[in-house]
Amino acid sequence: MSYGEKAGASLPFADGLFPHGPWPAPATLWPVSNDAKPTVLVIVGGSMAAVKAPSVLRRLREGGAQVRVIATRAALHFITELSLSTAADGPVGTDEHWFEPRPDALHLTHARVDAAVVVGASAELLAGAAHGHAGDLALATLLSVRAPILWVPAMNEAMWSHPAVQANAAQLRAWGHAFLGPEVGAFGTRGEGSGVGRMSEPEEIAAAVLALVEPAVEGQRLPGAPGAQDLAGRRVVVSAGPTREYLDPVRFISNPSSGKMGFAVAEAARDRGAQVTLVTGPVSLPDPAGLRVVRIESALDLRSAVLQAAQDADLVVMTAAVADYRAAAPSGEKQAKVAGDVKVHLTPNPDILAELGQAKGRRVLVGFAMETHAGVERAAQKAQRKNADFILLNYPTQAGTAFGGDDNQVTLVRPDGTHEAWPHMSKREVATRLLTEAARHLPPLTPAAPIA
């Protein structure tokens, strides 16, 4: 079944972009193969990660897909055409082939697919696609594809974080293109160290692409699959990171929360079509593209920002590690060190999750809990007490899930005490499952009641 047959003319990246209406469905432009096997276009970009492309091709074929391949001129500096052709069990499209005399237009024949993935997407490819360039086979084909497109970036962190690259990625997301990664890891070039920019692994790429082309119930894309827009039209608020409760201008009470879990939820919601507001405490993570970021410090700041953002929200996810107490009377001057013990008068911070629960209305409300013992029982009581739809419970002492890590292992706990223990997985995968569960609770799109 082709994407055109599944989605018709309501292409997520076409709506509203053209003055004469959306693009026609693929079936009216050209016939797509009626073979049972889905057809996937793999474009290999000019990155050191291009050497992993054959593994992606093999895994796609093992998963039941037919593959077509285009290698950019830059990609062929890192991997040979023969290696790609062998893995694809077919020819490789290149710029040289594009200009050869032939009865068809190579960029159009390669565009007749059920999904496309750009493996090792470079800053150059992102810029070209975001600005509608068609100066080579890869870019001309991307302009012609009428199917889901998945970008898998690979570049140095300095390049990935540059405002121009982030703006180009945001433009492509706005057109409905999906992104996988980049991940945190070591770079291939000597002396670069590690950071955000490493390409996702071949097995993750293949799984994401196969999820795009797998038929789903009632012709919709699989919830949570890259490119799925099941949160389109929804407003989502996510809190993240720690708070700082100052005792004086230089000393404060806080915790080691990195904000990675909340950022993962915010980015996953954005990629599924939601309008996202991320309210974050002091963290070292850069602002994600394509969403609104509000940076705060104290629990009182967080309360004000979250309650304001939640006025018209459909879903609120509270991942922030909020300090339970603050100084009752913080000093405006740095306090000198004194001999002996020091007593600090602390006062409780407001319970933001409970306040949201009191004025919940039709919103979906998700909280997080961290316990060292009796976790499920306490999380269920918390969900009941605070009127949350569910709580994600984690344990700070569990191996591989410490503050600052990229992975987590959580248990979903409902107010009635029923629960599901999720396996150890990346925080992005936790975010995806969380949003899929939350989406089941969402009512039909209607205006939410304001918070008093």
From TrEMBL:
Pfam families xref list: DFP, Flavoprotein
GO CC annotation terms, alphabetical: phosphopantothenoylcysteine decarboxylase complex
InterPro entries per record: CoaB-like_sf, CoaBC, DNA/pantothenate-metab_flavo_C, Flavin_trans-like, Flavoprotein
Catalytic function, reaction form: N-[(R)-4-phosphopantothenoyl]-L-cysteine + H(+) = (R)-4'-phosphopantetheine + CO2; (R)-4'-phosphopantothenate + L-cysteine + CTP = N-[(R)-4-phosphopantothenoyl]-L-cysteine + CMP + diphosphate + H(+)
Keyword terms, alphabetized: Decarboxylase, Flavoprotein, FMN, Ligase, Lyase, Magnesium, Metal-binding, Multifunctional enzyme
Cofactor: FMN; Mg(2+)
GO biological process, one term: pantothenate catabolic process
EC number, as in UniProt: 4.1.1.36, 6.3.2.5
Associated pathway: Cofactor biosynthesis; coenzyme A biosynthesis; CoA from (R)-pantothenate: step 2/5; Cofactor biosynthesis; coenzyme A biosynthesis; CoA from (R)-pantothenate: step 3/5
Cofactor info, note text: Binds 1 FMN per subunit.
Region named Phosphopantothenate--cysteine ligase: 236-452
Keyword Magnesium attributed: yes
Summary of the function given for this chain in its UniProt record: Catalyzes two steps in the biosynthesis of coenzyme A. In the first step cysteine is conjugated to 4'-phosphopantothenate to form 4-phosphopantothenoylcysteine, in the latter compound is decarboxylated to form 4'-phosphopantotheine.
Record's protein name: Coenzyme A biosynthesis bifunctional protein CoaBC
Organism: Deinococcus arcticus
